[in-house]
Amino acid sequence: MRVVALVCARGGSKGLPGKNIRPLGGRPLVAWAIEHARGVSRSDRVIVSTDSEEIAAIARAAGAEVPFMRPADLAQDTSPEWLVWRHALEHLRVADGAYPDALLVVPATAPLREADDLERCLDEFAKGEVDVVITVTQSPRNPYFNMVRKHPDGTVGLVIPPEGVVFRRQDSPVVYDITPVGYVASPEFVMSHGGLFEGRVRQVEVAPDRAIDIDTALDFRIAECLIAMRRGARTEA
Fold first, then answer.
1. Hey, what long-range contacts does 167-172 have (CB within 8 A, 24 or more apart)?
2. What's the CA gap between 153 and 151, in Å, rounded?
3. Diameter of the chain by CA atoms?
4. CA-CA distance, 206 to 117, in Å (whole number)?
5. Which domains does the chain have, with CATH numbers?
6. Which of 34, 122, 123, 175 has the smallest count of CB within 10 Å of its CB?
7. Distance from C-alpha of 141 to C-alpha of 124, rounded to nearest angstrom
8. Alpha helices in 18-114 (DSSP H)
9. Nearest 5 degrees, angle CA 203-CA 205-CA 209?
């Protein structure tokens, strides 16, 4: 199976300006994703999609390829990342004459993942009968138990009323949060469909401490603390 890993890292970020080049644990945020992608044994190439020359230089220094620059219309706050995947795949088709067998997307915003999390995604994809593999964590909030929505009369009720009474979250159906640790997708599916859940999707569960998604300054501080704790634990060992 020919696998191309794709790291998407645009230059703009409203929630945390300069996020993808901000130093985390001594290296730019985007460099963590590149390291994880390069640590996947089945990854034939690691390419970065960016509109920023600064990010492109950092990516190359970290060992990734930047074979094209992302156009401005795909680097806006409102730009669907699905179209960024398509743009990268179209470049690969033209340059290589064919799509890879699998596209492994490694978001830059989940720096606490491990390469093994990505390997497990590829394992799940390799089983067949699937278009996309996503990563998830068990959600601490549950629409059957402690998530409510407002009714027109001003009252609130559970998002999904369960059958019968649920007294504990543990007794309600298990639900998951999608986390951007990694995705594996069929290139042909991406090019012919408009989103993840138009096809057959399976999941790989990731531990919460490896699934943090950096979007704000608080997220960044939490990641800094977790990385420091990891390094401290290794030193003590």
1. 169/142, 169/145, 172/142, 172/144, 172/145
2. 5
3. 59
4. 7
5. 3-137+177-236 (3.90.550.10), 140-174 (no CATH)
6. 123
7. 26
8. 29-38, 53-61, 81-96
9. 145
Give the pLDDT confidence score for residue 197 in this predicted structure.
96
Pull the structure tokens for residue 52.
Answer: 């920023």
The residue among 112, 127, 123 whose CA lies nearest residue 180 is: 112
pTM for the whole structure: 0.91
| Residue-level length of the chain | 237
Helix (H, G, I), strand (E, B) or coil at 179: strand
Q: What is the pLDDT of residue 237?
A: 57
Q: Tell me how crowded residue 235 is: count the other CB atoms within 10 A of its CB.
A: 7
The dihedrals phi and psi of 48, each to the nearest 5 degrees, come to -115, 130
For 219, phi then psi, to 5°, come to: -55, -40
Distances (CA, A) of 41 to 2, 15, 37, 99, 122: 11, 33, 9, 19, 10
pLDDT at 34: 98
Mean pLDDT per 10-residue segment, the chain (237 residues):
96 83 95 98 96 97 97 91 97 96 97 97 97 96 92 95 80 92 98 96 96 93 92 67
Residue 148, token pair as written in the block: 């409510």
